[in-house]
Amino acid sequence: EVEVLRTRGIRNYALLLSSFFLVMPFLLHKFLDQIPKLGLSDRSNEEEVPWSTRLAYRVDVVFSSFSYVKPLALLLATLVLIVVGGLALYAVSQDSIWDAFWRAWTYVADSGNHADNIGFGPRFVSVCISLGGLLIFALMLGLVSDAISEKVDSLKKGKSEVIESNHTLVLGWSDKLGSLLKQLAIANQSLGGSIVVVLAERDKEQMEIDIAKLEFDFMGTSVICRSGSPLIMADLKKVSVSKARSIIVLAEVENADQSDARALRVVLSLAGVKEGLKGHVVVELSDIDNEPLVKLVGGEMVETVVAHDVIGRLMIQCARQPGLAQIWEDILGFDNAEFYIKRWPQLDGLNFKDVLISFPDAVPCGVKAASNGRILLNPEDDYILLEGDELLVIAEDDDTYAPAPVPKVRAGPLPKVMSHRKYPEKVLFCGWRRDMDDMIMVLEAFLAQGSELWMFSEVPEHERETKLLDGGLDPQSLFNIKLVHREGNAVIRRHLESLPLETFDSILILADEALEESVVKADSRSLATLLLIRDIQSKRLPYKETKTVQIRQAGSSHTSWIREMEQASNKSIIISEILDSRTRHLVSVSKIGDYVLSNELVSMALAMVAEDKQINRVLEELFSEEGNELYIRTAALYLYDQEELNFYEVMIRARQRHEIIIGYRPAAAERAIINPPNKAERRTWSIEDVMVAVAEEE
């Protein structure tokens, strides 16, 4: 009986203890705010904060600061429920204390387990424990759901880390990205594809949607998008910047100086990566004046491509040589033949003349000297390849060519062709570019003395000289060309009709400086100007046919295809600067003679330099007015009409003019063939054919 009384006392004590645990939270909530009023606070002159508010604040801070607090709190609540419920069950039933704890756990884990209880007390306690278990289970589901949702949102927003190496990293977003991704995919097609990671300050889902709209087969290349800023080190580490084999910094669509300033900050961020960079950095700049500063900060790891300067020089080259834009598209793009640099030890000791005809599937164009690391384009025939020298070639892919034994080639004399002196030309610029001073200097180097450059734009005439002087050009110092200024709007017909459009040898329609931040508006203006000029010229066709065409044919060695490109339905050569590739189809409908696709060509150059930084030296020389360039030559300079020769023999004959023939265009064909196959196969040539050569200006 004493034992029974003792057991009953313990059970009553357990009931009181469990009741106390149940009532205590309500008592704290009721009387907690009364504690400061009892004199426990010594800050009598300050406004008191209630204890309940303080406690709620502390709980909120802890839950916000530590992600593991929520599951720990849920675990603690479960243990408290099991302990309190177990004590209550022990008090109202005949179970031992440990059996009561176990039953409490089963009620928490499965609310249906209490159905077999008998008696009011056990049933009431078991129902309360089961309700608490349901609440805990609901909280647990909420925590799991929140964790999963947070992880999914993190993946959607591009916050997860990229675990890749030897990938190509693109920093920034612009309208060039589509063309750039296409070229990178084609470049890595032979390897089965590669990884391209894009980090930009845009929503990850929107980036993926925009890339999906490209409707382009990436041929095994995977594009991974991440949202973040290239200026934040944590975001750079998130995309494994230190393990990337190349990094491309795109220019933003904004003011040129602001875009270049941002590019400079990105280069500074990259230079501050503690782990160092595995690959090189290719930076797209908008203004050539900012190039020295970026190179100073980045050092040898940085290669720059100044988009505006490249397109300006290319427009002038295409104006002088119609059809050159197509040649550049073929060489810069990875679709056809492109530049590669590789070492071939078996060629050591050979002279360049023999090396030139040693590749059935490539065309050697230069040598990278081991002595100084410089790339020598179009070297002398007697240049001997030394140990360590690498060869620059044009080939379809880096694994599609290899040297073969030097073939026996019959070298013949060059035809005797009268050399024609350069005649003065008349060129029209429609619009005003930021680098107008640089374009004028390039034109000054190319044109003959007595040439005229007409400048037609809305920029007031008194401001033009100031702009040119600010750019470092004194108009009075020009020797070969004379500047003629006209003010007007290039999309107003009566303004264009005031110009002698039928007398110009070349017309360059420039993307106006005022509209360069809006690609669509700039292209719309260029296209409208193009159509107006075509229409005005068609009304003045007789004058053009009787005078200008005869002058050009008398003073030029161009063949029928080139004359056809020049005349373009008996009109001047018109080079239009097109920024958006989507405008390409509109330009083709207008039957333009030649055009430059700015963004696509710049994307091609960026991709090529990203794949091999050494190629940037080659492009810089080919784009400049000094040194070697790409030329379109008439076949009459190298062979006789209907003469049978193979391509090797044509190449050897061209060496007598110190030129390298990299391709040709048959008279009846629409496109040139760069790095032609079957070079040893003989064919009948026509003087109407056209050769594509790497040469210095005559």
UniProtKB/TrEMBL annotation:
SUPFAM superfamilies in the record: Voltage-gated potassium channels
Domain RCK N-terminal, first and last residues per copy: 165-306, 424-573
Key words, A-Z: Ion transport, Membrane, Transmembrane, Transmembrane helix, Transport
PROSITE patterns: RCK_N
Lineage: superkingdom: Eukaryota
Transmembrane spans: 12-32, 72-93, 124-144
Stretch forming the signal peptide: none
Main location: membrane
GO annotation terms (biological process): potassium ion transport
Membrane topology: Multi-pass membrane protein
Cellular component GO terms, alphabetical: endomembrane system
Subcellular localization: Endomembrane system
Family: Belongs to the castor/pollux (TC 1.A.1.23) family.
Protein name as catalogued: RCK N-terminal domain-containing protein
